[in-house]
Design goal:
seven-stranded mixed β-sheet; GNAT_dom; alpha+beta; Aminopeptidase; acyltransferase; Bact_Acetyltransf; about 30% strand; transferase; acyltransferase activity, transferring groups other than amino-acyl groups
Length: about 160
């Protein structure tokens, strides 16, 4: 059985909020060391996931060996979040989550990524995303330069 066969993508539930928050915090800490220090407690992040992320859009989780290993959140055609546990990166789980989100975005998908996040930029480039614009950091709470990426399915081009 391949690694992908052991990973299930399902809709997130309110009961997943604490685990999603842990994934979110661990991923940002491990993959984006340039971010300002986290000022919110794990409980505050869990409340944000439960009350904002899970209610504003559609969110999916990747479950491997009975544990949530990542999540993706879509609001309209904007991919708001795609985070993985740091210990399971580069195993195809991000691609499985992105594929699920793209299935729900038949006209295409946009996202914002920090310019410094070269790993994420490379991941999205491999999956056909192109740069729409760049910004000096005025549109994110971290005030860091970012860019908007866009994927358009071949059928919609």
């Amino acid at each position: 059985m391949s690694d992908d066969a052991k990973t299930l993508i399902r809709c997130a539930e309110e009961a997943d909020a604490a685990v999603i928050a842990r994934v979110h915090l661990a991923s940002r800490s491990a993959t984006m060391p340039y971010l300002p220090p986290q000022t919110r407690s794990p409980e505050q992040v869990t409340r944000w996931v439960r009350d904002v992320v899970l209610k504003q859009g559609r969110t999916w989780v990747a479950v491997r060996d009975g544990e949530i290993s990542g999540y993706a959140s879509l609001d309209g055609d904007m991919l708001e979040h795609l985070y993985l546990r740091p210990d399971i990166r580069r195993q195809g789980i991000g691609t499985l989550l992105l594929d699920e989100v793209r299935r729900h975005s038949p006209d295409g998908l946009s996202l914002h990524v920090f310019q410094q996040n070269t790993d994420a930029r490379a991941f999205y480039a491999r999956h056909g995303f192109t740069v729409l614009d760049t910004d000096v950091g005025a549109r994110n709470m971290e005030n860091l330069p970012d860019m908007t990426l866009r994927w358009t399915p071949k059928a919609a081009r």
